[in-house]
Amino acid sequence: MSVFTTVSPDDLQHWLQDYAIGELQDLRGIAAGIENTNYFVTTSNGRYVLTLFEKLTALELPFYLNLMAHLAERGVPSAHPLANRAGRYLGTLKGKPAALVARLDGSDVSAPTAAQCAAVGAVLARLHLAGESYPATMDNPRGPKWWTGVLPEILPFLPAPEAALLQDEVRFQSQYRFSDLPRGAIHADLFRDNVLFAGDRVAGVIDFYFACTDVLLYDIAITVNDWCIVGDGALDNARARALLDAYAAVRPYTAVERGAWPVMLRAAALRFWVSRLYDFHLPRTGEMTHAKDPGHFRRILELRIREEDLLPVLTG
User: Fold this and answer.
1) Of 133, 69, 127, nearest to 102 (Cα)?
2) For residue 56, what is the domain's CATH number?
3) What angle do CA 283, 288, 291 make, to 5 degrees?
4) What b/e sequence results for 202-226 when a residue is b if at least 16 CB atoms lie within 10 Å of its CB, and e otherwise?
5) Are residues 279 and 225 in the same domain?
6) CB neighbours of residue 133 within 10 Å
7) 0.90 exceeded by the pTM?
8) Other CB atoms within 10 A of residue 93 CB
9) Confidence at residue 2, expressed as pLDDT on a 0 to 100 scale
């Protein structure tokens, strides 16, 4: 979440006339993340998050906003979008598609415990089960086709050993399609800063704007690669075991998922290494932006390759 497009209180007050949420009291930019413009909005009726979409189009956005509503209405603690007076979740502000969602209580955690990892695993499984009844589909915009397409833009920036690793892993992943793995609506970005806690209880899951239709196991791998690591990217087995077992208690793994697990952990690391390389070397200008360290996910990928025999297995 960053600020690329500046919204003044006057801009927002005019736009909020289409919403029955009271008078604007406070507007603050959110300085984190790299994809959209985000503000905290407080009105006389409540607290909200305003998002202006810098890349996603008005044709793409109904998938994400309707998914958030679908999950929230089925007990998943997703931020529910607000409809305007015309009954639409999506509007236009400063020439950009824009939406308001309810601001959830709770706060993110930087050093999750095993109990909190278990809570995340259970919520992710609930999200996947609730997503089974979501009728819309969306191909993963940052899947293998995207990895391959941006390689020529990224490789000139890399030293030879990193370029070789990146090319080798893209080739490796191209050998695995896993068409028989369970698929459905996934969050695809369930990092620590996208989950809000109240104690050890998950109070909210936010930022669904990388959600798509893809392999459920890939979503689990993305989550484990962020929630269950120590400083250098190695897996913390106690936290990984807690998350994986709590997930399985809600949605048991299939035999094919258990076999695909090591490859999927590598795929999840590759996806975010490529994304961070792209955002670091080919950034967009923004008022408040934070490009994240690409080396973090390179190290995670190297560890998943080197320590395959030490990975926690899927049980249940």
Assistant:
1) 69
2) 3.30.200.20
3) 40
4) bebbbbbbbbbbbbbbbbbbbbbbb
5) yes
6) 10
7) yes
8) 22
9) 61
